[in-house]
């Protein structure tokens, strides 16, 4: 299961999956690749790599590099395995420290002058705050060159602060997905939509059969409402474009601007329509009381046909459920207004250094290579990268492969989860709460005005 580690939402998402006893994306058990399983393979299968790029950093044998991250058990195991080729090449030892309190503690450590060599930062906003401590180091030229080669300009921009490049991307996730039943589509002659108009046509076609097309749930304990923020962000990107989205996230456009109204009303066309929701679960208001983990399971039960949720939702299906294009359940890209427009909502992590010793620079450079991305793909599941050199066939399961194809599409315009970049008073408070109120009957204007009023002055 891949989530945005470090954010308050991601901890709730992961905790919910664990408490429900769901299948995690990094099980120690090896299921078959064809079944959409979630197994890993031994690090020994990675083989040797070209060590020549690391000779430029001098004799670093016997040195140690410390990593601090919110990626914890069980997801830490494949992370550590993927470092072995670098350790074998250079003789450097990677000291790994995972901490669920990473987001708070990494700031404390940086401000106290006791930072790690490297930190895996899950949010651009947190990255900016860490750079502001004055303790972070710009990325070495070797790393920057690899990011220019292997990643899109949008990803490099998230690792750049005040015009200086600090942090290469690490992992990624895709939120712009709609889950569905391949068998139902085949049996009924439904086709995967390639535009928003197609999505509406498909929805109406399913509704005409008397079935509720969509199922949705936004209940998530203290984080109730967060799935609604993703819905709005996805539609904001599609209806207003990436430039307006960037301004909205930075509050250069007010939260209650016409662009926001357009996006939320478009979401309402689906989620506040009793003919469309909530398959197998109730009426519109049932969305607020249905957990996000349970909602999409109605596809398997045959009670709904469509569920908008991120790539990490795969972890919620029973281990006997085949998650694949020809399986029990799969997903398609939530389309843009036209087939050639590919806005992508998602998240990821960035590698930020607090030391500029040769061994640290060498490891930063390794993590920016397609060599590392492919090694990581081979030893884990529920993980993907936006690295253009990542070979899709090396990914373990079909949803990872789908996510990689979306991220690598030359037309893709990736944007980070907006609520995770907004001030906490908005992104993880007012936005969540007001979106929940909107689902249960509050009008659009009141909802957006209340969120705007919460923005720190």
Automatic annotation (TrEMBL):
<protein>
    <submittedName>
        <fullName>Alpha-glucoside transport system substrate-binding protein</fullName>
    </submittedName>
</protein>
<keyword id="KW-0813">Transport</keyword>
<dbReference type="InterPro" id="IPR050490">
    <property type="entry name" value="Bact_solute-bd_prot1"/>
</dbReference>
<keyword id="KW-0732">Signal</keyword>
<feature type="signal peptide">
    <location>
        <begin position="1"/>
        <end position="30"/>
    </location>
</feature>
<comment type="similarity">
    <text>Belongs to the bacterial solute-binding protein 1 family.</text>
</comment>
């Amino acid at each position: 299961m891949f989530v945005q580690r470090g954010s308050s939402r991601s901890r709730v998402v992961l905790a919910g999956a664990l408490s429900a006893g769901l299948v995690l994306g990094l099980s120690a058990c090896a299921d078959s690749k064809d079944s959409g399983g979630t197994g890993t393979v031994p690090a020994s299968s990675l083989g040797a790599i070209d060590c020549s790029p690391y000779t430029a950093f001098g004799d670093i044998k016997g040195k140690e590099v410390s990593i601090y991250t919110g990626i914890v058990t069980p997801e830490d195991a494949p992370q550590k395995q993927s470092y072995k080729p670098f350790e074998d090449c250079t003789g450097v030892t990677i000291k790994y420290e995972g901490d669920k309190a990473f987001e708070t503690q990494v700031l404390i450590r940086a401000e106290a002058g006791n930072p790690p060599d490297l930190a895996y930062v899950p949010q651009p906003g947190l990255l900016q705050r860490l750079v502001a401590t004055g303790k972070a180091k710009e990325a070495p030229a070797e790393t920057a060159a690899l990011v220019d080669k292997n990643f899109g300009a949008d990803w490099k921009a998230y690792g750049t602060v005040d015009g200086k490049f600090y942090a290469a991307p690490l992992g990624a996730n895709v939120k712009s997905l709609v889950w569905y039943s391949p068998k139902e589509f085949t049996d009924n002659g439904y086709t995967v939509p390639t535009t928003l108009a197609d999505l509406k046509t498909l929805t109406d076609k399913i509704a005409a059969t008397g079935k509720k097309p969509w199922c949705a749930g936004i209940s998530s304990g203290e984080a109730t409402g967060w799935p609604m923020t993703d819905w709005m962000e996805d539609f904001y990107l599609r209806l207003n474009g990436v430039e307006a989205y960037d301004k909205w996230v930075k509050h250069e456009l007010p939260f209650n601007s016409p662009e926001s109204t357009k996006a939320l009303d478009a979401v309402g066309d689906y989620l506040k329509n009793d003919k469309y929701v909530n398959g197998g679960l109730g009426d519109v208001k049932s969305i607020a009381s249905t957990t996000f983990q349970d909602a999409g399971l109605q596809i398997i039960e045959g009670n709904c046909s469509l569920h908008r949720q991120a790539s990490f939702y795969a972890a919620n299906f029973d281990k006997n459920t085949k998650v694949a294009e020809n399986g029990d359940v799969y997903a398609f890209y939530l389309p843009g207004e036209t087939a050639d427009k590919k806005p992508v909502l998602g998240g990821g992590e960035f590698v930020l250094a607090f030391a500029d010793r040769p061994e640290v620079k060498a490891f930063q450079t390794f993590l920016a290579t397609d060599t590392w991305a492919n090694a990581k793909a081979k030893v884990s599941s529920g993980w993907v990268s936006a690295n253009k050199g990542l070979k899709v066939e090396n990914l373990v399961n079909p949803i990872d492969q789908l996510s990689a194809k979306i991220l690598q599409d030359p037309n893709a315009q990736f944007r980070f989860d907006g609520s995770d970049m907004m001030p906490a008073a908005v992104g993880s408070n007012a936005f969540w709460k007001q979106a929940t109120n909107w689902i249960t009957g509050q009008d659009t204007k009141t909802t957006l005005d209340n969120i705007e009023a919460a923005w720190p002055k």
